[in-house]
Each structure stands twice: as C-alpha cells, then as structure tokens.
Amino acid sequence: MLKLHQHFFINFFLISIVILVVSGVVSFFTLKKIELKSFEDSLLEDITIVEAFFKKNDSIHESIKEISKNAKIRITIVDMSGIVVAESDFDKDEMQNHLDRPEIIQANAKEYGSSIRYSNTINSNLLYVAKKTTINDKQIFIRTARSIEDINKRFIHLWLQVAGIFALAVLLALFISYVFSKKIKKEIEQIKEMLESIEQKEFKIKPFKFIISEFMQISSVIRVIAKKIAKKEKQKRKFEAKLRLKTMQQQDIMVALSHEFKNPIAVILGYCQTLNKDVDMPKETRVKFLQKIDKNAQKISAMLDRLSLVAKMESQNMVVNAKYFDIKDLASDVKNMLEDKYKNRKVEIEGSARNIMADRTLIELVLVNLCDNALKYSSENIKIIIDSEKVSVEDKGLGISKDEIENISKKFYRIKNNEWDNSLGLGLTIVSYILKLHNSKLLVSSSEGAGSTFSFFI
After folding, report:
1. 176 located within any domain
2. Closest Cα partner for 195 from 171, 170, 215, 213?
3. Is 67 exposed, middle or buried (0-12, 13-18, 19+ CB in 10 A)?
4. How far is CA 303 from CA 152, 266, 312, 335, 410, in A?
C-alpha cells in the first residue's frame, strides 16, 4: 500500500508525463501551422519583391532565375489564361496550363491563394503562394513556392527546442515535487508523532512548523483535542479522587449512622425488655421508662427526618412557599421551643420586628438548627440578633478554627475538637441549602475560645 507522499509523487509524475505528451503534440501541430503561416507570409513578401522588379524592369523574365537563386524560392509567372509565361526552375514551354491549380483559383477569387501539394515537375512537396496583379495594364499571376522539406527542417529544429524546454520544465517540476513529497512525508510523520503523544497520554505536544496549510489546521485541531483530553483526564482524576473520598465518607457515614442509631435503639430495647420482664413494676417507674422510650424513638424519627430532608434537597424537589411574616415573631417561637428543650439555658433576642418575604417553615428550620448548634457547643446563653438586613445567631462557645470554617456546612461533617458528638453533621448542610433557595448564604465568623456568629441576609 502506497503512502500519501508516494501517491503525490507518482500522480504528479504521471500528470507531468501526460502534460509533456499533450503539450508536445499540441505544440507540434501549432508550431507547424505557425511555421507554415510564416513561410506563406514570406512567400507573399517575395511576390511583392518580384512585382516591384517587374514594374521597374521589362526584362523580368531574364531576372527571375537570379531572384529565385538569391531567395531560394521557385518563381512562376502565369497569364490569365493559365499559360506559364516565365519560370525560374524549368522550361516554361514544357509546362502544362496552370489555370486549374488550387492556388491560382484562390488568387483569382481572393487577395491571394496558397496550397501544399506534390510537384511532378521537381518531384517534391511544395508550398505554393499565388497573387493576381496588374503589370503594364495586363493582369497576371505571380506564384512563389518553397520545398516543404526546408520548412520541415526548420520546424523540426524549432519544435525540438520547444520540446526540450518543456522536458526541462517537467524535470524541474518532478524534482520540486520530489522535494515537496519528502516534506509531506516529514509533516505526516510529525502529525503521527502528535497522535502518538496523545495515545501515550502526553498532552504537552511540542510545536512543529508546517508549510501545508491543511496540516497546520490538522495540527491545530489535534492540539485542541489534546487540551480537551488533558482537561478530561484531569477531571477524571479529580472525579476518581472525589469518588474515593465519597467512598470513604460513605464508610464514615455508615459508621456514624450505626453509632447514632445504636444508642437510642439500645436504650429502647433495654427499657422494653425491662418492662416485659417486670410486670409488677411501679407505675411511676413504668411511666418514666415509657418516656425514655418515647424520647429515644423521637430522636430516631428526627434523624430519619433530617436524612429524608437532605435526600429531598439533593434531588432538588424542595419547593419554597414564600409569604410575608415577622422574623422577630418567628425568633420568639424558636426561643420558646429551645428553652423548653434546654431547661437551664436562655435564648436572648435583640432587634426590632421586621417583615420578610420567605418560606416561614424553612426559615424556622434554619434558626432552629443554628440555635440548636449554638446551645450544644456552648455553655452560656446565646443571642438571636435581628437588624435591617440580616439575622445572626451568636454564642460564646469554643469557637471554630479557620481550617474548619470552610468545611462545617459540608454533609456529615462534625467539628473535631468538640466534646459533644451526638450529631449526623447535617444541620448546617440543611441551613446552607435553604438559604441558597432564598438567594442567600451562611456567613460564619469565629475565634477559637471566644465563640462564633452565624449570619444570613434575608
């Protein structure tokens, strides 16, 4: 199977040969026609010279041979009846009537006549040119002729020169095509090298110089493809890293879920088994045990609700039902609910009443999560601060390190240094998603040992 540069050279070689042959044939007939026309014009000029001599000298009959010898042409004078009255090469009395000669017939009808034919007189092919003219008020035909062999010799010599020039041009073209085919081969090898680099996942392709615009375009496309593949590979590596991280997180999640569900389930099973074994248990103790079972069951239910809410958020099925309401009234409801839950803690509210357009249930969930975290991670009272643009929850707890502030809103993330570790790490994930639905976001400022402030614009 031939390669591209070989195809190019062979095709160019064949085309060059065809051009050479065709141009040779065309030039042969064209040059022959031109050369015959040139001789025809020359013979017409000779007729003009003979005519001039005829007008100046009555003894033109005696001078014909001398003119013929000097001009190397045959000269014939024919009267209107076709009789040869003068001939440079033969005895005019032995010559036949010339009225039926083609060149005489044409000259009688037109400005001049010409023909190529075999002459029985000299046994050779001649080019004849005849012209009718008037000398001393007498019309005659002056005819000149020249051997075709002389014309052919000159024509062949000229044609060989032209053919030689064509041949040299073809050889030069073949040499140039050979050099060009080598260049094509080199550039194809460069394209191949670029593709092999991509195959070997070496996407930093070294630049090449191309003289063929198509190869330059191909190399540009290959570079673009290489960049895209490199980007895809980078994304693939990142995805694989994220996948590995997610796998590890899922393992951690399973451990966390097992841990979080294990304790309340164990408590429920323990109290249930005790109640089943001790049928005579005092009523007060039985009620206390049932309350413990109910509390742990609610805890499991709350954890399942949070997991369900996160799943709904990730599937983007959450719908915002926005209405006007007073954010301070909502803060008061959250305060009362959390103070019932945390009997020895206080939630303070600072700020004035302000109506906002939002989903009251979802914003309540935001405040509950933020306040619940503040109460869990601090031992002092917390504050809900309402101003003209944002709502903040402030605590005086342990604070959060700078490294962990970026991660606290991630799913299942729990602060490492906090002693309290009874959470799935979903609270701030839920908060961030709800705020995003309201075109807002969670802002965190914290100092280790001094407490934290969680704010959002609404």
Report:
1. no
2. 215
3. middle
4. 113, 16, 14, 21, 17
Q: Is the pLDDT of residue 324 over 90?
A: yes
Last-in-domain residue among 111, 131, 162: 162
| Residue 95 counted as domain residue | yes
Instruction: Count up the domains in the chain and report the number.
Output: 2
| Buried-exposed string 181-199: b where 16+ CB fall within 10 A, e elsewhere | beebbebbebeeebeebbe
Would residue 93 count as lying in a domain? yes
The domain that holds 60 is classified in CATH as: 3.30.450.20
* Residue closest to 121 by CA, chosen among 92, 99, 100: 92
> Where is pLDDT greater, at 159 or 370?
370
For position 394, which CATH number holds? 3.30.565.10
Q: What is the pLDDT of residues 334-367, one digit of tens each?
A: 898 888 878 888 999 999 999 999 988 888 888 9
Q: What is the pTM of this model?
A: 0.41
- In a domain, residue 302? The reply is no
The 10s digit of each residue's pLDDT in 222-265 is 777 778 887 888 888 888 888 887 777 666 656 656 766 776 78
Domain end marker among 162, 177, 209: 162
Decide: 100 and 110 in contact? Cβ < 8 Å. Answer: no
Range of the domain at 331: 318-457
